[in-house]
Amino acid sequence: xxxxxxxxxxxxEYLMDNAPFFLIILALLILRNLYNFIIKRYYKSENTELEIxxxxxxxxxxxxQQKLKSYEHLEKESLTNKNELLKVKQELTETKKIxxxxxxxxxxxxxxxxxxxxxxxxxxxxxxxFKTVEANNTRLGAHFIKNVISQIYDDIEQTEKSYxxxxxxxxxxxxxxxxxxxxxxxxxxxxxxxxxxxALHKENTSLKEELEHIHMFLxxxxxxxxNTNIQFNNTLKREQNNTIKIKPTLFFPFVENALKHGNLNNxxxxxxxxxxxxxxxxxxxxxxxxAEQRLNYTTEVTTPTSFGLNALQQxxxxxxxxxxxxxxxxxxxxxxxELTLSLH
Length: 344
Fold this sequence. Notes:
By secondary structure, this protein is of the alpha+beta class. Helices cover about 65% and strands about 15% of the residues. Strand 8 and strand 9 (about 335-340) form a beta hairpin.
């Protein structure tokens, strides 16, 4: 462009130097028009290029706007998805919380149910054990029953043989050595068996009823062992005998133990029982009996080894845990069994 302009100035200068004035004016007009034409064409060409560039830029702008809209749409969708995802996570968290709370509650219910079942099972087992202990404690020894019935049978036979008849009159030629007749002994053994059977279905009995059957038991021992001296000293008041309640056959194992393991065959044999209330308002039941001769004796409490005393100890553990059962050998071939019973 600068070269063209310089060329135009050179030609103008040449005309001014060599042509008349009007020619100069004409030349100037022609040159001006020529210059304008050239400039117009130049700018027209440049304008075309600019238009092409502008159209191209416009197209790129439109394309970028579309991309921007697309990006904005994607961003909006992403934000929406993000919010939905966050909502889903919150719902999942709440669901997990509810699930674990429910699961924990169910586990607690199951644990409580198991605990209840365990408690019921233990209660039932304890009940069965207690009933077993009661059954063991109320047993009368089969050997004792057999001996009593055998003695009754022998006495009845001897009684029949001792009677003679003369002129239609019956009379006895022998006197019985036993103070208790066999019929009374038979009644006593029946009453004792009935008391033992009914004891399994009774929670407790009066002390009076228990002692009545203890006396029956002692009468049968006297029937089997006529040389045995039996003493029973009850210092309790009549009201106490009627009002105090105990487990049926609670005192039986002492008498049974004396019969099984005591020496009750000679004229010095004895069973001595004292029933009283001690200074601590406890019931004291003490039995001392003659025993086999021993080279050694001990004053220490010994562990009961017989079935009856074991059953009694189990019964005390179950129903009278504050009570005390004592067994010990004494001098002069004697044996002591004592129960200190706490009723409260």
